[in-house]
Amino acid sequence: MSRISIFLTSMPIGGAERIALNLCSGLVDKDYDVDLVLVDASGTLLEELPREVTVVDLGCSRVATSLLPLRRYLQSRQPGILYAMMTELNVIASVAHRLSNTDTRLILSEHNTPTVSSHGLKDKFVLQLAALTYPHADHVVSVSRGVRDDLLHVVNLPDENVSVIYNPIDIDRIRARADEPLDHEWLDDPNLNVILSAGRHAPQKGFDTLLRAFARLDDPNTRLILLGDGEERESLMQLATELRIEDRTDFPGFVDNPFSYMARADLFVLSSWYEGFGNVLIEAMATGCPIVSTDCLSGPSEILESGRYGALVPIKSESAMANSIEATLENPTSSEELRERAADFAVESVVDHYVQLFDSVGT
């Protein structure tokens, strides 16, 4: 079958990188020849790639300098499809594709809501370049309907040229790792209700709202564990002290296996202001953990089917979040229902949609 090239920056442990890994694995299983083309071929996740995947190192220190190396790659390798991930990479891929003058089909993918996630001058400039370059692609994939709707507001694309394909999640891996042993006294205590959240400690994730919501809970036997690290960690720990919940809140930092925490927690909370999709919700559901999530612009409502599989609350509303936490702890969704819903996002199922797309654009 035709060669598929997936273009990404590098392969550290991260959401987009894990999605690229899952997509590579799924395509290899479908007998595609797969090149993973990296601006800089570094990162822990390289070790998890199937051996059939060819890693192409463009040898660049920045995305912007990968333009000419990517053009040379396209001219020499001439893959059937070049699939780029993330906005800045999409712009570079679009220009390199035009300069290469090959028959390669170009598919771009958008992983976040552009109008919400673009903050600084660089982001806004890249978004302007996207508006100029995206129309030259053969197709654009959005990871949720919310992302698609937002993208169509800022880029002049025909509706039929933008489709929604949800992120492929390795459900089997999550469930296997969920069974690994874990040593945390709160999670071993049947008298406690443990609330879990995870993610980069940055404003986007809304952990300050979660801490304030947690402080409102009346039950002294509740506990909160916030996995992850980032620039806001110290200020969040200080906020926990100010709210007088520091003895009921734990900040373990980055952990290698969050799934073992999810499998043992009583509730997972996503408190984000915005998400492109919200992979972590599916990961938690795959372990059977009940959900409360903010109803941000894209992702959670689609994953939870408008509240069928977990409570949805307004962003930045600590009172609504506290009420939904209490209600869900009292009456959680069944673990079996959650696991069944998570299976809808399994790699095998999602990759079938990609194969249909690749066939339709002419691999």
Could you outline the blueprint of secondary structure elements for this entry?
Elements: E1 3-8, H1 15-29, E2 33-38, E3 54-57, H2 67-77, E4 81-85, H3 87-100, E5 105-110, H4 114-117, H5 121-133, E6 139-142, H6 145-154, E7 162-164, H7 171-178, E8 193-198, H8 207-215, E9 222-227, H9 233-242, E10 249-253, H10 258-264, E11 267-270, H11 279-286, E12 291-294, H12 300-303, E13 311-313, H13 318-330, H14 335-342, H15 347-361
Parallel strand pairs: 1-2, 1-4, 2-3, 4-5, 5-6, 6-7, 8-9, 8-11, 9-10, 11-12, 12-13
Helix pairs in contact: 1-15, 2-3, 3-5, 7-10, 8-13, 11-14
Shape type: elongated
DSSP strand count: 13
Strand adjacency order, main sheet: 3-2-1-4-5-6-7
Q: Enumerate the spans where pLDDT stays under 50 for 5 or more consecutive residues.
A: none
What is the second-level CATH architecture of the largest domain? 3-Layer(aba) Sandwich
Mean pLDDT: 93
- CATH homologous superfamily label of the largest domain: Glycogen Phosphorylase B
Taking the sheet with the most strands, its summary is: 7 strands, parallel
* Ends distance: 8 Å
How many H/I helical runs? 15
**Under the CATH scheme, which class of the largest domain?**
Alpha Beta
What is the domain tally? 2
Radius of gyration using CA atoms only: 21 Å
